[in-house]
Write a structure and sequence with these properties.
Layout (H helix, E strand, L loop, with lengths): L19 E2 L3 E2 L11 E2 L6 E5 L2 E2 L6 E9 L8 E5 L27 E4 L7 H4 L1 E9 L6 E6 L6 E5 L4 E2 L6 E7 L6 E7 L6 E9 L5 E8 L21 E7 L7 E10 L4 E3 L3 E4 L10 E6 L16 H14 L6 E5 L10 H14 L4 E4 L2 H4 L19 H6 L12 E5 L2 E5 L11 H11 L8 E6 L9 H4 L9 H11 L4 E4 L5 E8 L2 E2 L6 E3 L6 E6 L17 E5 L3 E7 L4 E8 L5 E8 L2 H5 L14
Helix pairs in contact: 2-3
Length: about 625
């Protein structure tokens, strides 16, 4: 082998600080102890990758076949995928003035054991492996290691492979804008504003097309708050573009494609997509909403196994894709992809959800694995974001928040009003966020929008998770104390949370007391409280329930799933909980009422009545 293949090997001499993901074990990429690696190149060892050029038919993802051999095979041998292909320590900036290169420039973007699909590898020393790569704006190389993840020895490095156009515009994701008749399109590319003009070509189906320009954002390593996002997990994010498509006609189908006009006046295009414009506030039409939290990113090739994330995350994604014709909008309420500071995971997540997010609005909320980092203003002083401190979430996905760094906002969608809280910032009474949430709840016209839904990542209402039961609070401490009087005063129908990785539904409840014993069909004025739902089983490792019996808990499920709300009209709402494994309904209830039922007073929902006449 030529020396050109080993420019990158200097990175093996450096120290990797393993990041602990407190709630879910170690991130799989942090298990690779590259700081202990040694170079043990073997003349008879090799690793070959094919095809050399990917995406020749404009695919955004393609399977790569690896063939490899080692004269001293072991069951601990593993394959690492690196991108950029040259991960030389010569490109490493210093982390601070007392720490100089060499540093670990880049963790692998994925890895797999050499015997994963070759069970006789230990005996024969030969193996093959198929891995799925997505276009991530750079080339790739593959490395064969012996010695396991904890004491790796480099045996062989492959030639480089790359996508035909690594800069192509990719992974469009829709989101509602700041007005009801606006749709935003966000995508990722390798083209900066000095290289090309980003825009969306769009128009009504079978109608004239127009061009809408896009704003362009990016960020640097210095934008990260700590390791691994600032060190071994860092990877250039490319450019994130957002275009605002305005003055849409309600429920009309629009077609679009994303593009870049290069400086030489040639155009680079994505594929063709379409979406249905949102209904106007109060519009009577069939409106179907899917809500879940904590899905994470799966790998269909089996790499980077992370606490059994694959099955739940991929199953949830596939169920939504299969039922996409019956979904109008999606809310992913925090803990988006669990990158935890390993930035390439965000690209992989946007590729995973592209079939959904390119067709219906994909709205997010902020979770602890997106935002939390000590000394950065997060309400919880932990290290769950892996140093991302909210930058990735607020840049990769658009929300109509007035300040992207504070992800609380409201959404008017037909007969629904959604009030989305940011539990990673202070939400207690008297804070800026508390005032916003009260305004969101108070300002809705219930004759036009009878269905008020409160969404948040952490459980501010009720949960039987053992983690909360051990604290004696059955929710985030101070959560109910701050918000329950608002939920009651403004007659919030349903509050839905993530964070706890299971499903649970309460009775209509206020101040720890069920206000109705009905379980499946709430008619007229009978709600009298708010139904609290935990829907954090999107894909991350499941959370256990306490053995304590709680009177307010109606239905529990230790499994992966998601929630679907269907508003048929101003008087009838259907709630369903579906499992990700089969898409079938395992829990449901209906609310049937008229406007006068909403106006009726319940405990603490109306001021005192005067006796004057």
């Amino acid at each position: 082998m030529g020396e050109s293949k080993f420019v990158s090997l200097a990175f093996l001499l450096v120290c990797l600080v393993v990041q602990r993901v407190w709630s879910h074990g170690y991130h799989p990429l942090s298990k690779v102890a590259v700081h202990k690696a040694t170079v043990s190149l073997l003349d008879l060892a090799y690793i070959k990758a094919s095809p050399a050029v990917l995406g020749l038919q404009e695919q955004t993802a393609e399977w790569v076949t690896l063939e490899y051999s080692s004269p001293i095979p072991s069951i601990d041998d593993w394959i690492g995928v690196f991108s950029p292909a040259n991960f030389s320590a010569s490109t490493c900036p210093k982390e601070n003035r007392r720490v100089y290169p060499p540093l670990l420039c880049s963790a692998p973007i994925k890895y797999q054991y050499a015997n994963y699909s070759s069970p006789l590898y230990k005996e024969t020393g030969k193996g093959f492996l198929k891995l799925l790569l997505i276009n991530q704006r750079s080339d790739f190389s593959f490395a064969l290691f012996s010695g396991g993840l904890s004491n790796p020895k480099l045996v062989a490095v492959s030639d480089k492979i790359a996508f035909a156009n690594p800069n192509a515009p990719l992974y469009p994701r829709l989101a509602l804008g700041k007005s009801w008749n606006e749709m935003t399109v966000t995508w990722t590319s390798g083209y900066g504003i000095n290289d090309a003009e980003p825009f969306v070509q769009w128009g009504p189906k079978e109608g004239d097309r127009m061009h809408s320009p896009a704003e362009t954002l990016t960020f640097t390593r210095d934008s990260m708050c700590g390791a691994p996002a600032r060190t071994v997990g860092w990877r250039d994010p490319g450019y994130i573009h957002t275009s605002h498509l305005k003055e849409l006609w309600p429920n009309k189908i629009y077609e679009y494609r994303i593009g870049h006009k290069l400086n030489n006046v040639t155009y680079i295009w994505s594929g063709n997509y379409q979406f249905t414009a949102p209904p106007f506030p109060g519009q009577k039409s069939l409106q179907r909403v899917v809500i879940f939290g904590d899905m994470g990113k799966g790998e269909v090739d089996g790499s980077n196994e992370y606490n059994n994330f694959q099955h739940g995350s991929i199953n949830t994604t596939q169920q939504l894709i299969q039922d996409l014709e019956n979904i109008d909008i999606v809310f992913h309420i925090g803990d988006i992809c669990y990158a935890n500071g390993y930035l390439p995971q965000w690209d992989q997540f946007t590729a995973q959800v592209e079939p959904i997010a390119s067709a219906v609005p994909y709205m997010i909320a902020s979770g602890n694995h997106e935002r939390d980092w000590p000394g950065t203003g997060s309400f919880y002083e932990n290290m769950d974001s892996g140093g991302e401190c909210g930058v990735l979430a607020q840049t990769m996905f658009y929300t109509p928040a007035s300040n992207r760094a504070k992800l609380w906002y409201s959404i008017d969608y037909g007969m629904f009003r959604f009030c989305i809280a940011d539990t990673e910032h202070d939400w207690r009474e008297g804070t800026e966020q508390y005032k916003f949430i009260e305004h969101c709840l108070a300002s809705v016209d219930r004759q036009k929008q009878p269905w008020i839904i409160f969404l948040a990542h952490r459980v501010l209402g009720y949960s039987s998770c053992i983690c909360y039961a051990e604290e004696g609070s059955f929710a985030e401490p101070m959560g109910r104390e701050s918000f329950q009087k608002l939920w009651q005063k403004y007659k919030v129908d349903i509050a839905i949370y993530g964070h706890v990785h299971n499903y649970e539904r309460t009775c209509p409840i206020y101040q720890n007391i069920c206000t109705n014993e009905e379980k499946h069909h709430y008619k007229g004025r009978t709600l009298n409280g708010t139904i609290h739902v935990v829907a954090g089983g999107g894909g991350a490792s499941l959370s256990a329930f306490t053995s304590l019996k709680t009177k307010w808990s109606i239905f529990k499920d230790y499994d992966y799933g998601f929630v679907k709300l269907t508003a048929f009209d101003h008087s009838n709402l259907l709630f369903e909980y579906k499992k990700s494994r089969d898409g079938k309904v395992y829990d449901s209830f209906k609310i049937s009422r008229d406007y006068r039922d909403i106006l009726a007073c319940t405990m603490d929902s109306c001021p005192s009545i005067t006796m004057a006449s």
